[in-house]
Amino acid sequence: MMVMGTQSTASPNAADTMPPSMVPGGLFATWRDDVPAGVVVFLVALPLCLGIAVASGAPLISGIIAGVVGGLVVGALSGSPVMVSGPAAGLTPVVLLGIQQVGGFERLLPAVVLAGILQLLLSGVRAGDVAYYVPSSVLKGMLAGIGLTLILKQLPHALGYDGDYEGDMSFVESSGSTTIGSLADALQQIQPGAVMAALLGVGVMLWWPRSPFARVKLLPAPMVAVGVGVALNEALRIALPDLAIRGTHLVSLPAISNGDWLRQLALPDWSALSSPTVWELALIIGLVASLESLLSLEATNKLDPQRRDAPVNRELFAQGVGNVLAGLLGGLPITGVIIRSSTNVDAGAQSRLSAMVHAVLMLLAVLTLGVLLNRTPLAAIASVLLVTGFRLTAPALWRTAWRLGYSHFIPFGITVLAIVFTDVLRGIGVGLVIGLAFIVVEHLRSPVLSRLSPPGAVLTRYGLPEQVTFLSKASIARALNALPAGTRVEIDGRRTTRFDYDALEVLLLFRETAKARNIDYRLVGVPEAELTPAHVRSIS
């Protein structure tokens, strides 16, 4: 029985199996919007992919491979026009510990392949439908929590402090410090050049949409912001070298020549399949990656200005294919990722082409553009992510959550706090528990018996709903116990398609109480044969 939340108005449909070529308008119909958006996502995704690889204890190239496969393969197969897939910070602890447990990254790769196969199986049994039952308060809290965390995590980079890897979303960082600790350290080690690049980038992000240049679709604000940051730093190198941003404060792309990149690839060590740990890791990676992808998909659907609802089971299929290929090619596990997806939306993407463009650029960057990209300040990229984070946790979102009442705002707020002070996956788990608790409480408070007869009628008739579950037990008991002595009452269950054992028990037990209170109590359409009064007495 599903009781996790209010079901979305969307439902799976024929688009679950629609090939990419059948999408109305074709893949290149909106290329003027998608190509620039793909460039922006590439600029943001590149340091994230590298940072996640470093934090996972995996080769740098594995993060790039995951980003390329996530964009080209998952992007092509996905039904979402704007979601971006790639390596995710949420799986970093699993991968890091898994490499240590199985004895090397090559021995972890079979687990990534198996995780992809598991996702294909989950897609086949339509397990993705569970995403429709996540409460909207938790989804909105996830967006706001990620946005707030993104701001707190990017502020140190904007100040020129890069003690934590780009893309980390955990409160407790790999260095042992915390998000707040890193921010405090950054305030004591401010780099003027980085601050200038970040402030200039934020200014461009806010001004550009209102400027006359906004009509030039090939120049979205985030791309201009990063370009201005690079130009500023190059000017500082010449005019004021003491203020120039150098070293760890720049993108650090691994140097790979055209003839050497194949030797950088890690290939799966299939002998690891004899280890039970590999199979356990495959199960964990498959389930966690599926959950994160489904939640990111639902959140991205809400961010999409056109409110296009992407099919969940098709997404699981795309993610499964992506993880199988990533594992075979030596890449990190892939999931849908909300930060890159929200950046994609902000950059004006209209179709899957933007995700594919970002992947092609990432591949070209590794092969040919390393020297140029390694001049990009992380502070310039931080300026884009700071604005993205603010939009995710905008005050309007908080005001709306407050106006919807405490039953919506409390799960929303707790999800936000849990994400900020733990990590995204744990925060969502806490939010789901709290959201479920509020749903159960509201269900228990709402009346199950609806009065069918007019006031003053000799016979009071009550109707039961289509589903009478164990959650209806308390409400039924309260309503029956409140009946005055001498009442004539009839409970009509002919509309009910499902009776839980617990609810039947309450209905039949009341028959004995009704006799003692001189209540004429009748049941219509209730399957009394399934639980006789004698049986009830014997187990009560």
Provide a descriptive summary of the structure in words:
With 540 residues, this protein is mostly helical. It has helices at 31-55, 60-77, 92-102, 105-124, 136-158, 179-187, 192-207, 221-239, 261-264, 276-303, 312-329, 338-346, 353-368, 370-373, 378-392, 395-403, 406-421, 424-445, 473-481, 501-516, 533-539; strands at 84-86, 335-337, 450-451, 460-463, 467-468, 488-492, 498-499, 520-524. The chain has a four-stranded mixed β-sheet, with helices on one face. The longest helix has 28 residues, at 276-303. The radius of gyration is 28 Å and the shape is elongated.
If you average the pLDDT, what whole number results? 87
Into which percentage range does the β-strand content fall?
under 5%
**Which sheet architecture does the biggest sheet show?**
4 strands, mixed
Number of strands: 8
Radius of gyration: 28 Å
Level of helix content? 55-70%
Shape label: elongated
**Count of alpha/pi helices:** 21
Q: Class by helix and strand content?
A: mainly alpha
Helix and strand run: HHEHHHHHHHHHEHHHHHHHEEEHEEHEH
**Straight-line N-to-C gap:** 25 Å
Order of strands, main sheet, comes to 3-4-6-8
**Unreliable residue runs:** 1-23, 533-540
Taken together, the total number of domains comes to 2
Secondary structure elements and pairings:
Blueprint lengths: L30 H25 L4 H18 L6 E3 L5 H11 L2 H20 L11 H23 L20 H9 L4 H16 L13 H19 L21 H4 L11 H28 L8 H18 L5 E3 H9 L6 H16 L1 H4 L4 H15 L2 H9 L2 H16 L2 H22 L4 E2 L8 E4 L3 E2 L4 H9 L6 E5 L5 E2 L1 H16 L3 E5 L8 H7 L1
Helix pairs in contact: 1-2, 1-12, 1-13, 2-11, 2-13, 3-4, 3-10, 4-10, 4-11, 5-6, 5-15, 5-17, 5-18, 7-8, 7-15, 8-15, 10-11, 10-12, 12-15, 16-17, 17-18, 19-20
